[in-house]
Design brief:
The complex is a heterodimer of chains A (221) and B (134). By secondary structure, chain A is α+β, with helices and mostly antiparallel strands. Chain A contains one helix and eleven strands. The longest helix of chain A is centred in the first third of the chain and has 53 residues. The termini of chain B are far apart. The chains are: A alpha+beta (221), B alpha+beta (134). The interface between A and B is large, with 36 and 36 residues.
Chain lengths: 221, 134
């Protein structure tokens, strides 16, 4: 009888230890994968946005950073700003006007973060207003209402939007500060994923990765 | 022929050692990912500072700290950076050029101490030539 009890006890200990090992192992692996994923996402987005911002003209920048774009997440204020700037749809061919010494601007590109909780999506939208409204200046249509072109549901943006896509799903903060006088734009992009949970303790762990850029658009005059 | 308490205890000790080893492997994996995140963030900080020198044309050597979230979301990591510039003189060239080197280190007070027990570096260094705009 005593031997049976001891055997059950030992076996229980064995099973509990095995459970803890699997829990720590699987959760740790999930966390590792999620951290690598967040890093890769951030670096990919950084390269992409950096290239587009550098090709633009700082004078055309419109930053949407009103109070309606500030959320409180876990006791911390985070920005989900919007940013629009003049661009060229296809940089190949005759995209550059040698007489005017500037690109032949033909569209505006907007990046903005939606206000989902605790993370939002980063949307890239292309706006094509009438040709006479496009130039190295902010597009006038963006002043027509706070959310006219920064809607949490991008399909509901105004008619000038010709395409949009979701470039990230895990944006905790997208903060843009434009300094026309200083000739540069500062951008902070923080991605966050909360995937791993230790079953034994109930603790949740997240992965966060942040990018900071300070960019001087090359085609600023 | 039943097992004695001593045999059981011995089996438990062996099992505990094996399990601790397995847990150790998983924790090492997690630490590696954390260090990889820190290193990626440090490289981005260095790149950011290099671009800043090129954009602002400020060729003065300086130090600073940039706090960035690089793995968890509890607290940002403080990345210390040193920007060192040296002017390159080349005969026949009209524009001035500088070699700019940025060293970023974290969790240590000095980049020369920048190694942890496993041999991983806790510092990164990037450099490039920047030409002064006329």
């Amino acid at each position: 009888m005593v031997e049976a009890l001891v055997t059950v006890l030992v076996f229980s200990f064995f099973l509990a230890a095995l459970f803890v090992i699997f829990d720590v192992g699987i959760t740790g692996f999930e966390l590792s994968v999620s951290r690598q994923g967040v890093q890769n996402d951030a670096r990919r987005l950084g390269l992409y946005i950096d290239k587009e911002l550098r090709s633009s003209n700082l004078v055309s920048f419109h930053v949407e950073d009103s109070v309606t774009r500030v959320l409180n997440v876990d006791g911390r204020d985070v920005h989900r700003d919007g940013l629009c700037f003049v661009s060229v749809k296809n940089w190949r061919g005759d995209a550059f006007d040698p007489l005017a010494v500037e690109p032949r601007w033909d569209s505006y590109v907007c990046y903005y973060a939606t206000r989902g909780y605790p993370t939002g999506r980063l949307i890239r939208a292309v706006l094509e207003p009438p040709a006479e409204e496009i130039g190295p200046w902010p597009w006038v249509g963006l002043g027509g209402g706070v959310d006219s072109y920064f809607n949490d549901e991008p399909a509901l943006n105004g008619p000038v939007q010709t395409s949009h896509r979701v470039v990230a799903n895990n944006v905790q903060e997208f903060r843009v500060v434009s300094s026309t006088g200083g000739g540069k734009v500062h951008m902070r992009l923080r991605l966050r994923e909360q995937t791993a949970r230790f079953q034994a303790s109930g603790d949740r762990m997240g992965s966060t990765f942040e990018l900071n850029y300070e960019i001087t658009p090359y085609n600023t005059k | 022929m039943g097992m004695t308490i001593v045999e059981l205890a011995l089996a438990m000790v062996v099992l505990a050692i094996v399990m601790l080893g397995v847990i150790g492997v998983f924790l090492t994996l997690l630490n590696s990912t954390t260090r990889s995140g820190d290193r990626s963030a440090a490289q981005l900080v260095a790149q950011f500072q290099l671009e800043k020198v090129a954009d602002t044309q400020n060729f003065v050597s300086r130090n600073g700290v940039q706090r960035v979230y690089s793995h968890g979301d509890e607290l940002p990591v403080s990345f210390n950076y040193q920007v060192e510039t040296s002017e390159l003189s080349r005969a026949g060239e009209e524009t001035r050029a500088f070699y700019v080197e940025v060293t970023v280190y974290w969790m240590v007070d000095d980049p020369s101490q920048g190694r942890v027990g496993s041999g991983d570096k806790l510092s990164v260094r990037l450099g490039r030539v920047v030409r002064a705009r006329e």
